[in-house]
Amino acid sequence: STADGVALFDAGQAGSSKNELIGFAARSRKFVNTKPVGLCVSRHRTIEICNEALAQIFGYAQTDLMGHSLA
User: Fold this and answer.
1) 52 with 62: CB under 8 angstroms?
2) In angstroms, rounded to a whole number, what is the distance separating the alpha carbons of residues 27 and 53?
């Protein structure tokens, strides 16, 4: 889903296993990190990876957002 310059992909909604999510993250990390809009990959509404643009939108460091709930 997208809103206000932020795009979200919840791998949990697709029924992806943790290994599939890790593979997706590895393939998409460069894509996610090079986009000027906030991007996040989550699993069951928990941030797995996000880019610097998303962190700046919310005023946090990128690593501070990972592992936190989107709820």
Assistant:
1) yes
2) 19
